[in-house]
């Protein structure tokens, strides 16, 4: 039986992936900071749960080592846990930046650092890192978030090249705005910002309709089965990414229009 560990598996995208993988007969370990929700998901789907803070490198290494010892194999690792950080650049404190780096970037680094040697030794395995469309295109009003997600894309593509000759696969998932609780609790434990309370509304105004999480989970698993380097969904996200590749300057102009529409920062002085 194949095995998978999903960080951030207690909610949203991680939970949908856990459900879908369990239906496909994979022995999933849901790992999350939120013990109550994590145990509930695990009980619903007949999966294992492990309390985990991805910021704790030793705990991440211990978990992957334990799954390997208990099952004798580690097939899939979804480094998916993440937090939303939102606000105009001038409102964000260093604490916003530090927390984004700790969870969204260091959390993925810890997962890769722990899982990759195990998979090298095994000669197989697939690391799937969750970045974001904000890791491919300019995403205003979430600077620490877009910064960490660009880093996760870079890490994943470079590791993919290094890992391929050794039999290990690496993919990176870049979803557009997806309908999950993430959009209702931006800036967790951090000072509030004007946009932080309006993340869901801002996402709907930017993208139109939020993408259903079950559809995203199916897209992700299709991309993983096909060993795609980048898994970008929904179609509007792929169009934005194509626009960015054709003309980064035009992509920034489109982002500037979105900034004007959201009107959360100071007066617009560009006409003067
Ligand atoms: N929802 C979106 O619109 C969207 C878009 C693009 C990318 N993403 C990314 O998808 C991933 C999953 O997000 P989601 O939308 O499912 O959010 P979510 O809030 O529904 O789920 C995230 C889960 O991660 C857990 N988590 C947070 N910090 C953790 C930590 N330090 N250690 C362990 N677990 C932790 C939370 O408890 C939660 O269960 C994130 O990396 C997010 O950045 C989400």
UniProtKB/TrEMBL annotation:
Gene3D superfamilies: NAD(P)-binding Rossmann-like Domain. InterPro entries: NAD(P)-bd_dom_sf, Sc_DH/Rdtase_CS, SDR_fam. Keywords: Oxidoreductase. It holds the Pfam family adh_short. It comes from the Bacteria. Its EC number is 1.-.-.-. GO terms for molecular function: oxidoreductase activity. The keyword Oxidoreductase applies. Belongs to the short-chain dehydrogenases/reductases (SDR) family. This is SDR family NAD(P)-dependent oxidoreductase. It comes from Nonomuraea typhae. The lineage of its organism: Bacteria, Bacillati, Actinomycetota, Actinomycetes, Streptosporangiales.
């Amino acid at each position: 039986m194949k095995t998978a560990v999903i960080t951030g598996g207690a909610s949203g995208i991680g939970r949908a992936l856990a459900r879908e993988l369990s239906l496909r007969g994979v022995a999933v370990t849901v790992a999350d900071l939120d013990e109550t929700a994590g145990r509930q998901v695990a009980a619903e789907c007949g999966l294992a749960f492990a309390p985990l803070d991805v910021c704790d490198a030793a705990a991440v290494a211990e978990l992957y080592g334990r799954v390997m010892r208990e099952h004798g194999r580690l097939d899939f690792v979804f480094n998916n846990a993440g937090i939303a950080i939102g606000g105009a650049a001038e409102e964000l404190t260093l604490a916003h930046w530090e927390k984004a780096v700790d969870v969204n970037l260091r959390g993925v680094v810890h997962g890769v650092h722990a899982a990759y040697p195990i998979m090298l030794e095994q000669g197989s395995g697939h690391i799937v890192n969750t970045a974001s469309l904000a890791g491919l295109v300019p995403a205003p009003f979430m600077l620490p978030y877009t910064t960490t997600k660009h880093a996760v894309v870079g890490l994943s593509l470079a590791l993919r090249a290094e890992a391929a000759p050794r039999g290990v696969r690496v993919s990176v998932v870049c979803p557009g705005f997806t309908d999950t609780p993430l959009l209702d609790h931006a800036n967790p434990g951090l000072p509030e910002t004007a946009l932080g309370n309006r993340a869901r509304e801002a996402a709907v105004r930017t993208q139109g309709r939020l993408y259903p999480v079950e559809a995203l989970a199916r897209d992700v698993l299709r991309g993983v089965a096909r060993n795609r380097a980048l898994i970008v969904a929904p179609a509007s996200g792929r169009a934005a990414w194509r626009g960015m590749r054709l003309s980064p300057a035009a992509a920034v102009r489109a982002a500037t229009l979105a900034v004007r529409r959201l009107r959360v920062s100071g007066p617009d002085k560009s006409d003067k």
